[in-house]
Write a structure and sequence with these properties.
about 400 residues; two-stranded antiparallel sheet; 15 helices; 2 strands
């Protein structure tokens, strides 16, 4: 009786079987119900998180935020949606119509598809896929395709340049994301997302804090959030790849951006913060849903905090940060964690790869030490490079020009 999700599922199954429905029909019905719930949940959640983000950034930047349409401005997003629904979708002259209209649809669909394998609780998950991590990487890459389609089909040189720059950045930051996803896969011994959560007797953030940080930063960049929002740098390329979009076509890109940021919080919570795990969550799955969203919103708050405080970086700085720092750091971290894990398993007889909290303590200690050492080395390297750059700039300084004294001969 405490597992409401299984209870509802069994009731629907019994109802369908009573009218003679076969296994195929039952699977189709459950697929439709799950898709309907997830899609509508995300559409409603988009209104909520956009309002939350506007209010929080307003507080961070000493502004008021929306406060006119409804109490505390809670209906401002509803007014924005109605406005966008009534605005015309203008197709530029010479635009390629089919890819032009497909781009925003693919952008939103890529986010919706990720949530199909995210476990809200032990018995509340859209679908279980044995290669769930690979599935997430594949469908999230569809957003890159939508950016390229939007810029290429718009028949606008600014949109095309913006798309090229966006794709270069997004593809680059996919590399550290995938490398860091190898760590929870290695620790759990599976690519099944539900099993990865099940295996977190100790949250992976305590075993691999540096990996968690790299995954969050790279995902934050892939979501094109400040300080990595060069994809929409108005002062440089107007509005980037979606400059020619208006009405609901633009609204879909807008929706995908905010949902992607919220999805980053869900993925960090799932892979590194134990997902739905918490006190009594296994016995009462509803509590698991609550724990999952508390963790997701905690990560999402950090996302908002970064957007409201950090200035935008130049595109060369963004790319240098990825290729010259994040990717080498990710490669070193993955190799050392795998090496340390295998050596410790061979040396220490009580070293456990899976188990409960107490069983996993030796493994957590070994991997935590590796993360601390690699993080300290990375910080030291950054400090050293910063000192060298300051010395180089100081050596290039030109002595001030001496001005003639007052009254001196010209």
């Amino acid at each position: 009786m405490l597992d409401i999700f299984t209870l509802i599922g069994d009731w629907i199954t019994g109802l369908l079987e009573s009218i003679g429905a076969g296994p195929v029909v039952i699977d189709l019905v459950f697929g439709f119900i799950g898709s309907f719930i997830i899609i509508n949940f995300l559409l409603i959640m988009a209104l909520v998180i956009i309002w939350i983000e506007r209010k929080l950034i307003g507080r961070i930047q000493a502004r008021i935020g929306p406060n006119r349409v409804g109490p505390w401005g809670i209906f401002q997003n509803v007014a924005d949606v109605l406005k966008l629904m009534t605005k015309e979708i203008i197709i530029p002259t010479g635009a390629d119509l089919i890819p032009f209209m497909l781009a925003p649809i693919i952008s939103v669909a890529s986010v919706f598809l990720i949530w199909a394998v995210v476990p809200f609780a032990r018995t509340a998950v859209g679908t279980t896929v044995t290669v769930g991590v690979l599935y997430i990487v594949a469908v999230s890459s569809l957003s890159i395709l939508s950016v390229l389609l939007a810029g290429w089909s718009s028949n606008n040189k600014y949109a095309l340049l913006g798309a090229f720059r966006a794709v270069a950045m997004l593809v680059s930051y996919e590399v550290p994301i995938i490398l860091m996803l190898l760590i929870p896969v290695m620790l759990a011994g599976t690519m099944d997302v539900l099993q990865i959560v099940e295996q977190q007797g100790i949250w992976y953030v305590f075993m691999a804090p540096l990996a968690t940080l790299i995954f969050f930063v790279a995902s934050h960049a892939e979501a094109a959030r400040s300080p990595f929002d060069t994809l929409e740098a108005e002062s440089e390329i107007v509005a980037g790849f979606h400059i020619e979009y208006s009405g609901m076509a633009f609204a879909m890109f807008y929706l995908a951006e905010f949902l992607h940021s919220f999805t980053v919080g869900a993925l960090v919570a799932t892979f590194f913060l134990g997902g739905w795990r918490g006190p009594f969550a296994a016995e009462v799955p509803v509590l698991g849903v609550i724990y999952f969203f508390i963790k997701t919103f905690a990560v999402y708050f950090i996302n908002i905090w970064a957007r409201g405080t950090l200035p935008r970086l130049r595109i060369d700085q963004v790319m240098d940060f990825c290729w010259k720092f994040l990717i080498p750091l990710s490669l070193v971290l993955v190799m050392l964690m795998v090496l340390a894990d295998k050596v410790a398993a061979a040396v220490f007889p009580g070293y456990a790869a899976v188990g409960g909290f107490v069983d996993l303590l030796p493994r957590a200690a070994v991997l935590l030490i590796v993360n601390v050492l690699v993080g300290a080395a990375a910080v030291g390297w950054v400090i050293r490079q910063g000192r060298r750059e300051r010395e180089r700039l100081a050596a290039m300084e030109i002595a001030p020009i001496e001005r003639p004294a007052a009254g001196a001969a010209k």
